[in-house]
Amino acid sequence: xxxxxxxxxxxxxxxxxxxxxxxxxxxxxxxxxxxxxxxxxxxxxxxxxxxxxxxxxxxxxxxxxxxxxxxxxxxxxxxxxxxxxxxxxxxxxxxxxxxxxxxxxxxxxxxxxxxxxxxxxxxxxxxxxxxxxxxxxxxxxxxxxxxxxxxxxxxxxxxxxxxxxxxxxxxxxxxxxxxxxxxxxxxxxxxxxxxxxxxxxxxxxxxxxxxxxxxxxxxxxxxxxxxxxxxxxxxxxxxxxxxxxxxxxxxxxxxxxxxxxxxxxxxxxxxxxxxxxxxxxxxxxxx
Amino acid sequence: xxxxxxxxxxxxxxxxxxxxxxxxxxxxxxxxxxxxxxxxxxxxxxxxxxxxxxxxxxxxxxxxxxxxxxxxxxxxxxxxxxxxxxxxxxxxxxxxxxxxxxxxxxxxxxxxxxxxxxxxxxxxxxxxxxxxxxxxxxxxxxxxxxxxxxxxxxxxxxxxxxxxxxxxxxxxxxxxxxxxxxxxxxxxxxxxxxxxxxxxxxxxxxxxxxxxxxxxxxxxxxxxxxxxxxxxxxxxxxxxxxxxxxxxxxxxxxxxxxxxxxxxxxxxxxxxxxxxxx
Lengths: 287, 278
Hints:
The complex is a heterodimer of chains A (about 290) and B (about 280). Chain A is built from eleven helices and no strands. Chain A has helices at about 25-55, 65-75, 75-110, 115-130, 130-140, 145-170, 175-180, 185-225, 230-240, 245-270, 275-280. Chain A is flat, with a radius of gyration of 23 Å. In chain A, about 30% of the residues are buried. The longest helix of chain B has 18 residues, at about 190-205. Chain B has eight helices and ten strands. In chain B, helix 2 (about 115-125) packs across helix 3 (about 130-145) and helix 2 (about 115-125) runs parallel beside helix 4. The relative contact order of chain B is 0.17. Chain B is of the alpha/beta class and about 280 residues long. In chain B, about 35% of the residues lie in helices and about 25% in strands. Chain B is globular and about 45 Å long. Chain B has a six-stranded mixed sheet with strand order 6-7-8-3-9-10, with helices on both faces. At the A-B interface, helix 7, helix 8 and helix 11 of A face strand 6 and helix 2 of B.
């Protein structure tokens, strides 16, 4: 059970035994217990990679050794850092815009079926058009700056946000709405106090998908035309057959995606402690 | 903690359904409800008339699909009758009414709010003065035995406790009429008896008019002044039974009394063995 700032309650409520937060040691032990398998799998992959390159099963210009990749990561840190920042910036901006526009569109669609019927086919069309195919067009229209990258990130991250928010807003308990009608609630009151908070768990599952897609969007934008960003780094490295740099770029890019995903998950835990605690802590243990 | 009973304005003698010469808290006259189905129209209620006096406790029993819940929704103004008229406190019901408390079978609590803040939702939406609302909430929390659970979240509470929270929320604004739609249907038998006793006490202490839909014959007889037995398709009132027990009822003792057993047996007969799952 998460004890966050939003849980404004004493540690103990009569009859409801709230566990005190786990100590640092316990938390570490639990984290280790939960994550040793994926970490072990990663290590195995790493070892396989190392064996392949050390035994020279594949030419080193095709698959660089882990050592060479690490050399790039440590030796060209500032170069990688500078380009990673550009990609992160584009991703975050694209993600934030996608969330803002997506949530707004979802609210309007849920409250007006006319708008929903009008907008939905267009949304679907925008979703099925391969973003990679229209990326060059955006570069033609918007130039080589960050604008086309952000636009692609927005387009690619927008759909999961809208869908999850619409689902969340529609999933409200109808009895709860009847109840608020008997309380004489104005529709904005029902929205603020009931519908919106009730939709947040759905929204967050959409946000987790959206944030990883936004990274893809930004990199795709950089592939098409850019002089900075990790997409640019990878294309350059590819052109020069600089596979250590290519691998380093890929690793950093994946890391950005993972960090952003975890950030959304932490935000979910902080903002919706009631949801996270319910999902994570089964009341009883089954065999 | 005494709720003033509704002003008993003398009025013209009521129709056949009226028992006392006062404005009924709830007046249902010749009400029919038809739902438009895909292939055929379904008549949920057919020419139902019922008057409930202020402070009276009326239970509605009947097999599933006899329109008991529909009747409650009509009184609350959540549903429009196809014909006939519903009155609440002498006023014709047209649209959702705010002078009622509603309790559903499921507690319908907001899971991101603690028990107390779920109760106070009622006050927030109605913009009641904060101090008064808090005082009233504390009083209800004590009265329903929720003390010590005020800060617990719904998922930390048992079904019975959740339903107590829903009851407190429904009573917070001191509504003259309380509508309950199978409020204890999802509870285990023991908790249910306990809740019945508490509801009886709360009803006596607040003087609220209560309309209770239930599947349980003993619950209906134990709690109500009058039990309305309904029949399905189309929903009509079969008979209205006066229970004739004192308002203050000790559970074990009441259940053993001949009035209780007679009324319960009579209702069971009316419902028929097949549909009386008590």
